[in-house]
Amino acid sequence: xxxxxxxxxxxxxxxxxxxxxxxxxxxxxxxxxxxxxxxxxxxxxxxxxxxxxxxxxxxxxxxxxxxxxxxxxxxxxxxxxxxxxxxxxxxxxxxxxxxxxxxxxxxxxxxxxxxxxxxxxxxxxxxxxxxxxxxxxxxxxxxxxxxxxxxxxxxxxxxxxxxxxxxxxxxxxxxxxxxxxxxxxxxxxxxxxxxxxxxxxxxxxxxxxxxxxxxxxxxxxxxxxxxxxxxxxxxxxxxxxxxxxxxxxxxxxxxxxxxxxxxxxxxxxxxxxxxxxxxxxxxxxxxxxxxxxxxxxxxxxxxxxxxxxxxxxxxxxxxxxxxxxxxxxxxxxxxxxxxxxxxxxxxxxxxxxxxxxxxxxxxxxxxxxxxxxxxxxxxxxxxxxxxxxxxxxxxxxxxxxxxxxxxxxxxxxxxxxxxxxxxxxxxxxxxxxxxxxxxxxxxxxxxxxxxxxxxxxxxxxxxxxxxxxxxxxxxxxxxxxxxxxxxxxxxxxxxxxxxxxxxxxxxxxxxxxxxxxxxxxxxxxxxxxxxxxxxxxxxxxxxxxx
Length: 546
Description:
There is one protein chain. The protein has about 550 residues and is an all-alpha fold. Among the domains are: about 125-240, Alpha Horseshoe (Serine Threonine Protein Phosphatase 5, Tetratricopeptide repeat); about 250-255 and about 265-315, no CATH class; about 325-470, Serine Threonine Protein Phosphatase 5, Tetratricopeptide repeat (Alpha Horseshoe); about 485-540, Winged helix-like DNA-binding domain superfamily/Winged helix DNA-binding domain (Arc Repressor Mutant, subunit A, Orthogonal Bundle). The chain is elongated, with a radius of gyration of 28 Å. Helix 11 (about 195-210) runs antiparallel to helix 12 (about 215-230). About 80% of the residues lie in helices and about 0% in strands.
């Protein structure tokens, strides 16, 4: 085929967004002849869009020089901007800053007013926002928006709206902020912006939605963007932290296999070059999925890798310890995390549900009750359906533990409805386990069986082995080896007490505090309906616990 015909074919592939074909065809031509600046730009962009970041930087760098040689200052500056942004997204901040500096110098040497000045101001506004000054960033994004509107540049319009939305959310103007994010995202799905800008808009939206617990909005836009991506060959628009959050959304929707694949891809992508702090987040997400599947050894390794990368391992590791029966270890860890987040409402919102589950297992009903009330207040303040579902689930769990079964059932029913609306099958099924217990304790055994069977089917589909084990025990009946409804740790305490050990001796033997021993004894007495150590000891011998 004649070279000119091949070149037209490559350009046509690029125009119809067949990115892999365009990259392969332009690469083949590049080996035989020198491409002009515009085709080098196409080569670099196609490389970026199929995930070949190093090739993208190389192609855009050559395009930058070619545009500069041709006197096309604006296009040279734009190439430098995208090189800088690509390097920033890969954690290569010094190089990225160097390219943005070069672009700034080119603009300063050129007297003509250009839309590219808005792109460089955008980069500065993003840095200001990341530095924790959303007010100043908002003013800068407003200036970017004016430039974008003046030059009618769709990419810059969308990116400026995105920045304004992020700054508003950071300043507490959540409603106005998410409306601005929706506007930016709409421009993506209607095809008004380029694919490279589309990926940035989507990833920023998902990250922002996660911070404010608006996961339903993130799910809706994820589905919309997936449909948009399906029309473009081999498109990989996601980078960095966004990859991890996509896995979290898949997990929430019950797509655990896909979520694990996404987490693995994130780990592989973020490991090169080494040192990306988001890598720890990817390992933590992998650990969470492994824990829920019952692959505890692999989960522990993934939590360790997350910690090695500098990412916090709690509350996931504490929940792993709870699943392993190491209640005291879980309790100590989650109490430390909650205490350290005393002045951080957002962080407490992320850990209180785990805290409630763990301290209830440890017998601290008062602590769980207080935390559930706080979580309810936070859910009301944030106004996010996801956090409301978390709070209702926790509240029902505490009410059930307190013996307020009818109220618990109502709270759990509300939580189940909320999880259904969010499309979170695993969380909804966990609530149904608690509803089954409530029904059984109200002597409604048929309803209990219905709830239990429905939960089991979800756990089986997802491969949630630990939850399946929980569901294997009929509601209201203690697991084998735990008479009287005692937890494994309560059995340990009772066995030692029955031998005549003091609270101090029990604490030393089990490596827990005397206060924790006293709490366990109080729960034991309540469950067995006794008021003394002697009566509890008699129960232990009667049921062959000693």
